[in-house]
C-alpha cells in the first residue's frame, strides 16, 4: 500500500501498489489512550487551561474521555500489616473513603456519609490487615468489627488530643481544664510503655484531685439539675471510654511490632488528603461529579499496579453503563416495577390508605 492523498474527512488514503488491483482504504488511528493520558497529566499538574501548551478548546476535547470514565477499584488479597483509612468530604452529602497501605492506595469508595455500611463496602474488597489505624469516627469501628473481627485497632492519638482540646479550649480558665489540657498534649509524646504508665498515672491523679469539683451540680429556675462543668465532665467520660476500649496504645504491642512498626497517628492518609485538596484547589470550579472522578483517578494512579491507559480506555465503566445499571436496579425494585411496568407491589411492600385512615369519624368495633 502507498499513500494516495486524503479522504474528505482528512484521513490518509492508501492504495494498492498493484495497478490492476485498484483497492484503496484508509486507516483509523485510535487515540483514546493518548487522550486519556493527556487528561490525566493535566489533572495532576499545576497548570490551568490557559497555561497549558494545548489550546483550551483542544484540551477540553481531549479530557472528555477521562470525564466519561470511572476508574476500577482493585481487589486487594494481599494481607498488609497496617492499613490507614480516612474520608475526604467534598459536599454535605458526598465523601470519598480512602484506604492506604504500604505507601499505596488499596481502595476507595464514594458515599453520602461515613456510615458503617459505606465503610463495609470499602473493607469488603481488602484483605483483613493486622492493624487498622483510624480516627474512630463515622461508623468505621462498627464496620471493622463486622468485616475485620481479628484486626487490632489503633486510634489516632492526634484526633484524641484534638477531641480533648475541643472541650477544654486552647486556653482554659479553670485549673482543672489547664491540667487536662497539659495531659492531652502529653499524649502525643507517649513512645514507650513507661510513657504510657506515666500518662495513665497523671490522668488518674487528675480525676482524684478534681473528683469533687467535677461532681458539682447546677440547679436551674425550672427545677432541673445538671453538671456545673459539663464540658470537663464530657471530656472525662470520653477519656474513660477510650481507655476502656484499649485502642490508644496498640502501637506498643510487642507482638505487632514483630511484623513492623505501627504508627500512633493517621498522619499518612491525612497528608494524602492534603495533596488531594491541593489538586482540587488548582482546578477549582469543577462540578461535584468531576471532583469525585478527579479523586478516583488520583487514587487509581497511586495504586501499586494501575492498569494501562489503553486498557482503561477500552474497559473502564462509562457514565452510560453506570446509568443503565442504576436503571436496571430500579426496575427490579418493587416501587420501580410498579412505576415502570405497572406491576402491583407484593404484600408487605406497600402502605394501604385504610391502614391509617377511616371512612367515618369514629371507627366502630364491628
From TrEMBL:
Superkingdom classification of source? Bacteria
Record GO terms (molecular function)? DNA binding; transposase activity
For this UniProt record, the keywords arranged alphabetically read as follows: DNA recombination, DNA-binding, Transposition
| GO process terms (BP) | DNA transposition
InterPro entries, per the entry: IS1249_transpos, Transposase_mutator
Q: What is the purpose of this protein? A: Required for the transposition of the insertion element.
Family per record: Belongs to the transposase mutator family.
> What name does this protein carry?
Transposase
Annotated source species? Bifidobacterium moraviense
Amino acid at each position: 500500500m502507498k499513500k494516495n492523498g486524503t479522504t474528505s474527512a482528512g484521513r490518509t488514503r492508501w492504495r494498492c501498489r498493484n495497478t490492476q488491483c485498484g483497492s484503496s482504504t484508509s486507516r483509523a488511528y485510535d487515540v483514546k489512550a493518548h487522550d486519556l493520558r493527556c487528561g490525566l497529566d493535566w489533572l495532576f499538574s499545576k497548570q490551568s487551561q490557559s497555561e497549558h501548551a494545548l489550546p483550551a478548546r483542544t484540551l477540553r476535547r481531549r479530557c472528555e474521555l477521562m470525564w466519561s470514565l470511572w476508574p476500577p477499584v482493585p481487589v486487594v488479597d494481599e494481607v498488609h500489616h497496617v492499613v490507614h483509612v480516612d474520608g475526604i468530604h467534598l459536599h454535605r452529602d458526598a465523601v470519598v473513603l480512602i484506604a492506604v497501605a504500604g505507601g499505596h492506595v488499596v481502595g476507595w469508595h464514594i458515599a453520602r456519609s461515613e456510615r458503617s455500611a459505606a465503610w463495609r463496602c470499602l473493607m469488603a474488597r481488602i484483605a483483613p490487615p493486622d492493624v487498622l489505624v483510624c480516627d474512630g469516627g463515622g461508623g468505621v469501628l462498627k464496620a471493622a468489627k463486622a468485616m475485620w473481627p481479628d484486626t487490632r485497632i489503633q486510634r489516632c492519638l492526634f484526633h484524641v488530643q484534638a477531641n480533648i482540646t475541643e472541650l477544654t479550649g486552647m486556653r482554659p480558665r479553670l485549673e482543672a481544664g489547664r491540667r487536662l489540657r497539659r495531659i492531652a498534649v502529653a499524649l502525643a509524646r507517649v513512645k514507650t510503655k513507661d510513657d504510657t504508665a506515666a500518662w495513665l498515672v497523671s490522668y488518674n491523679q487528675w480525676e482524684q484531685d478534681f473528683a469533687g469539683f467535677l461532681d458539682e451540680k447546677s440547679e436551674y429556675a425550672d427545677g432541673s439539675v445538671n453538671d456545673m462543668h459539663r464540658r470537663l465532665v464530657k471530656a472525662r467520660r470520653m477519656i474513660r471510654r477510650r481507655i476502656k476500649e484499649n485502642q490508644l496504645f496498640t502501637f506498643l504491642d510487642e507482638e505487632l511490632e514483630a511484623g513492623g512498626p505501627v504508627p500512633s497517628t493517621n498522619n499518612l492518609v491525612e497528608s494524602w488528603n492534603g495533596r488531594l485538596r491541593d489538586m482540587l484547589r488548582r482546578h477549582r470550579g469543577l462540578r461535584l461529579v468531576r471532583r469525585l472522578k478527579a479523586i478516583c483517578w488520583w487514587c487509581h494512579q497511586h495504586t501499586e499496579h494501575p492498569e494501562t491507559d489503553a486498557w482503561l480506555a477500552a474497559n473502564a465503566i462509562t457514565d452510560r453503563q453506570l446509568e443503565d445499571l442504576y436503571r436496571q436496579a430500579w426496575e427490579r425494585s418493587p416501587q420501580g416495577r410498579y412505576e415502570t411496568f405497572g406491576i402491583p407491589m407484593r404484600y408487605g411492600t406497600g402502605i394501604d390508605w385504610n391502614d391509617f385512615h377511616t371512612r367515618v369519624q369514629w371507627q366502630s368495633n364491628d
